[in-house]
Amino acid sequence: MEPVQAVILGVIQGLTEFLPVSSSGHLVLFQRLLGLEEPELLFDVAVHTGTLAAVFAVFHRPIAQAAAGFFRLLAQALSPGKSVEWDADSRLAAVIILGSVPTAILGLSVQRFLLWSFASVPFASSMLLLTGVILWLTRGHGFSGRTEAGLTAKDGLVVGIAQGLAVMPGISRSGATIATGIFMGIDRPAAARLSFLMSIPAILGALVLEGSGADPAVLAGEWPVLLLGGAVAAATGYAALRLLLRLLQHGKFHLFAIYCWMAAAAGFTAHFLGA
Predict the structure, then answer these.
(1) What pTM did the predictor assign?
(2) Element (H, E) at 118
């Protein structure tokens, strides 16, 4: 991969990881347009690591609160005879952990299928159409509802399943998880925080899974390009995340459906015209 290609794909990843338009679907389409016929899974992990840094930059306070809640739960669990006291932070931590289970199971179970789907422009385009439908259905919902203090185990499991299904290119992880949270009766800001905090263990898991299978010789030769793509993804991801949170507050979330449908149409057109 050339540096210019790494910058382009890093910008695409940073912009689309948090905007509900499917970063993986866009990477499939643009890898094909840039002449990268084979899936660039190691590069995909690098740019996801960059966007993970953006999550920490924007959500450092709720991340710290969830971490504190987790350690309080752990301390209470290790204290004989002491009942567990639930607060908003500990409840959020428990829901994130619980939701990570179906995400991991689904991610591992469809790994072989995922390799094929990352090479299929028609599949990614079809899933972009589905993402658009999901986003459009959020119209008018989520302006009032439960916050972190009212999260339940069911919330974690259902949002975790949505996140697991979003490993398929064209299904937006942020779109699927935020929309699912809204459909579950969680208000928009809390659904967004849950979505992005739940992405942390998922991205870390993908990093370990893909990194463990990397050829050290290839990695040594590719690291400058991987670092460049990751840095670009981090910078653009930070800006995109701030934009998404602003649009969520103003009830514009469903309008991304129109873009998803246009991107899907472009993908189908490019495929059938032989681009």
Answers:
(1) 0.86
(2) none
Name residue 227's amino acid.
Answer: L
19 bridge partner residues: none
Residues with Cβ within 8 Å of residue 273, at least 6 apart in sequence = none
Of 169, 216, 177, 207, which Cα lies nearest the Cα of 193? 177
User: Which one, of 78, 70, 23, lies nearest residue 197 by Cα?
Assistant: 70
- Are 55 and 114 spatial neighbours (Cβ–Cβ below 8 Å)? no
Phi and psi torsions of 151, nearest 5°: -65, 150
User: Nearest Cα to 22, choosing from 183, 230, 167?
Assistant: 167
At 186-220, the pLDDT tens digits run 999 999 999 999 989 888 887 777 666 666 665 66
Q: In angstroms, rounded to a whole number, what is the distance separating the alpha carbons of residues 71 and 67?
A: 6
Residue 76 β-bridge partners = none
